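tool_call: predict_structure(chain=1)
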Amino acid sequence: MFEKYLIIFLVSMVPLIELRGAIPYAVAFKLPLLLSYIIAILGNMLPVPIIYLFARKVLVWGADKPFIGGFFSWCLKKGESGGKKLQEKAGRGLYWALFLFVGIPLPGTGAWTGTLAASILDMDFKKSVIAVLGGVVLAGLIMGAASAGLFGALSSIFN
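tool_result:
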């Protein structure tokens, strides 16, 4: 059982997959949803301060390096475009926009991208982390409900 929870924790830390992949895993393996949800949130939030404080510096440093430059430049462009879209749409409600950007589980959104965008936009650290945490909680609720509904429907079809 510990191994499955460790997988949930680690999967929720992976960029682009994050909690959106960890919650369906927990539901598919019939693990207790509340504990899985808490573990996935912790795993998804663990990299957030590191991303905010260091990612932009590392990406700028590596953007012109051989082998990694293309990927690092892509990450910078992704963060900048996400940040600019947030800023344009949100205006004064930038932290609410960050919350929704992270909270609505669509491809390319999530804690990693949202935190990188907050860092690139020089948003307040504490407010950004709170907005991202709220978004992760919302995404977890949406994914839990969607996963339980999908897997419940599939099990009733195939049983």
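agent: The chain has one domain: 2-158. Proceeding to next step.
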